[in-house]
Design a protein that fits this description.
The protein is an alpha/beta fold and 393 residues long. It contains 16 helices and 14 strands. Strands 3-4-14-9-10-13 form a six-stranded mixed sheet, with helices on both faces. The chain starts with a helix and ends with a helix.
Length: 393
């Protein structure tokens, strides 16, 4: 446990190592840029002035702290106490804004004039476009063609906020290909542009930095639980996992507690459940690949979980047994979306519905014992997924 606490509260070892995972596997031309970001983040994270500005924006602009909402009817039906950490209520509608505001402030502090980002579900793209508009930075967002079709509303929101959206036509035309294209572009404009990565993955220092910007979710939830639960901490802490930024932030608040940490992957994109160690987008983690080591395509009904890798800290937490990773399939996710909407009046993102689906199943089969307390992070709101759900109706 001590090792995990140290890994969470301090910089990861060496070049961003979480055990055998993490690191920095980038072209030589990007090494100075990554080193510049690492130095700038370390200095900013130690600077009370930086924290004060970030905290101020999280409070007056994002709307933090987000509430911990009791799911009253579902709790009664399942025989548990289910508390929902409401990142869907933040400005822009997802947890992505926590990390993006931090990185955008860092980019401005570094003298950069432009943000580059990749996006799958569009939530990170909208958050980056929003932060760019707020701080006066130009924004370019790379997005797969298939995701553009699935997330038309978020594409329009990005353009309304002044961002340029670049369609990516390579490969599966999803998040993996958008990320590859964003990295290739960063190499050509690194002098005046900052790569604002959206999840807890990529080369060091991004997994560490994104987790630190997102740990506000877990820290808030833990403090809110302490004032509400007789045992102070919940029995289970649950979050969906694609790259894993909302889960990394949520888990960070509970690593040194007895709470069981559960990450829920898409059944068709379960990098921990079905992947093997490999290198993707500049970091080593568990990755979906064939017998020749070639990256294989992921599938998920939710664009945000349609990624063949997972953040390196999650691979480490799984390997050490501190967190458990499970899956939910598309049918369970759609059913969970409907049940949460009709039981609690909350339309959550399909990504978050993976976590809901697992809690519904686990409470019914006894994996979550009756009387247990469960904190579940709703990472985003479901407006963006209405077209997908309408097609299935």
């Amino acid at each position: 446990m001590d090792q995990l606490v140290r890994a969470d509260s301090r910089r990861p070892a060496g070049l961003g190592r979480f055990g055998e995972y993490g690191g920095r596997f980038v072209p030589e031309s990007l090494v100075p840029a990554c080193e510049e970001v690492e130095r700038a983040f370390a200095e900013a994270w130690a600077d009370p002035v930086f924290h004060a500005e970030l905290h101020h924006l999280l409070s007056v602009y994002v709307g933090r702290p987000t509430p911990l909402t009791p799911a009253v009817r579902l709790s009664a039906e399942l025989g548990i106490t289910l508390l929902l950490k409401r990142e869907d209520l933040t400005h822009t509608g997802s947890h992505k804004i926590n990390n993006v505001l931090g990185q955008a402030l860092l980019a401005r502090r570094m003298g950069k004039r432009r943000l580059i980002a990749e996006t799958g579900a569009g939530q990170h793209g909208v958050a980056t476009a929003t932060a760019g508009a707020l701080l006066g930075l130009d924004v370019t967002v790379f997005m797969g063609e298939r995701d553009i079709e699935r997330q038309e509303l978020n594409v329009f929101r990005m353009k309304m906020l002044g961002a340029e959206v670049v369609p990516v036509t390579a490969g599966s035309r999803t998040l993996k290909d958008a990320t590859s294209e964003a990295f290739r572009h960063w190499v050509t404009v690194v002098d005046d542009s900052y790569y604002c990565l959206g999840s807890a993955l990529g080369p060091h220092p991004y997994p560490w930095m994104v987790r630190q910007f997102q740990r506000v979710i877990g820290d808030e939830a833990r403090a809110q639980c302490a004032g509400r639960l007789s045992a102070a901490t919940p029995d289970f802490v649950v979050a969906c996992v694609g790259g894993g930024s909302n889960a990394a932030g949520t888990f960070a608040g509970f690593l040194d507690t007895p709470a069981r940490l559960i990450g829920v992957e898409a059944a068709g994109g379960a990098a921990i459940g079905a992947g093997r160690p490999g290198v993707l987008h500049g970091f080593r983690s568990r990755v979906l690949q064939d017998e020749h080591g070639q990256i294989t395509e992921a599938h998920s009904i939710s664009a945000g979980l349609d990624y063949p890798g997972v953040g390196p800290e999650h691979a480490y937490l799984a390997e050490t047994g501190r967190a458990t990773y499970v899956t939910a399939d598309d049918a369970e996710v759609v059913a969970a979306t409907h049940r949460l909407a009709r039981s609690e009046g909350i339309l959550c993102a399909l990504e978050s519905a993976h976590a809901v689906a697992w809690v519904l199943r686990a409470a019914q089969d006894g994996t979550i014992p009756q009387g247990s307390t469960v904190v579940l992070t709703l990472s985003g709101r479901g407006d963006k997924d209405m077209a997908t759900l309408m097609e299935l109706s």
